[in-house]
Structure formats: structure tokens, C-alpha cells
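Handout, page 2. Input:
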Amino acid sequence: MMSMMTIASFLSAALLLLVPGILTEKAYGPNLIELTIVNSISNAPNETYSADMVFRGILLGAMRRLQETNSDFKFTYTEDPNYGPFLESVNGVAGVNAEHTYWELLVQTGENGPVIRPDVGIGCYIPEPNDRIILKFTKW
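Output:
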């Protein structure tokens, strides 16, 4: 015979499965981040996009949604077995090892906050609402 706690757990799990989007819907209103593309090598004009975030979602998910909804934004990445997703190209511009170029992830927290270099990449970084994500093409 099932205990009341087991029945309650089962019903809670069943409810999550029956209510579409309960785990993916935004919590606490719209969660938008600003994504700015900076090419410090060619000095091309910056490009800025707004990306929709799910509550506590990873940056890679927001970038995928942005790519699906905005034909002007494209990116590619590879999956490193040790370090996870590695950003290869943005809007047709790819990093090249021989030229020592790559895409750097930077984040400006808040409207006038400091620009930081997160210690994780696009597959692990969890943006806060109103973060400004900066994808900067640069040299090492």
C-alpha cells in the first residue's frame, strides 16, 4: 500500500507532466538580456540584440532562441568533451587558431555595472535579467 507521501509525490510529478511549459515558462515576468556583438579586430559597428531568457536558463539556450527568431543573428559552436560548448563563430566571423583570434564572453551586470569575464562559458553561464552579454571577437 502506498503511503500518503508517495501518492503526493506521484501526483506532483504527474501535474508537472500535464501542465505544458511549467518547467520552461518564464517566472516573475519577462527576463530579457542584451546581447552585444563586438569585433575589436575589424572595428565593425557593434550589433545589439535582445534575447529572451527562461528563469535561471543558460546563455546557450537564449542564444539558440535568438537564432531561431532573428535571421540576423547566427552562431556556431563545438562541444569540447572536457570543457563543454566552445563558441566558434558569430554572424559569419570565426575564430582562427593560426591568427590567434577567438570569441570572448564578457558580461556587464546591470545598466552601469562592471564588465566581467565569467569563469564559465556559454553552456554554463546563467545570465541575470538585464545583463548585457558581450561577445567580443579579439586576439589572444
